[in-house]
Design a protein that fits this description.
alpha/beta; 5 strands; 41% helix; Alpha/beta knot
Amino acid sequence: MKIRLISVGKPHDAYVKAGITDFTQRISKYFKVDWVIIPSAKNAASLSAQGLKKAEAPLILSQLDKDDYLILLDERGKQYTSTELASFLQQKANESHKQLVFLIGGAFGVDESVTKRAQLSWSLSPLVFPHMLVRLILSEQLYRACTIIKNEKYHHI
């Protein structure tokens, strides 16, 4: 199974880049993994929130294959403990999904067409975090889940 991490916005800021790179490399010992950063629309400043989401939707959807299992990160989504996330990852691997895609939408979220395409809406927390921190937290939690699956020492229960 492959894991693709997609985020809308600017490239990783320096203050989180090293951590994201480190955890992404760690994940790669368990699953193939890559990041796709989709730049915000060029005319973003002149668009309404809804207009921006509509402009970003085809860019997001173009990154997906029809068989991808899409997980949308959203503060209103389902919450998992780290062990539940590990079980979820293991279940998807057992179901022979070719690719899990974790999507961090744009500044105003995602268009309804993207929400409808997602099989799961997942919340890291009911709090709202800056996108750069979400990238770091997501990569760390996926690595943590991998170590839980393999019963390695990183996660302490």
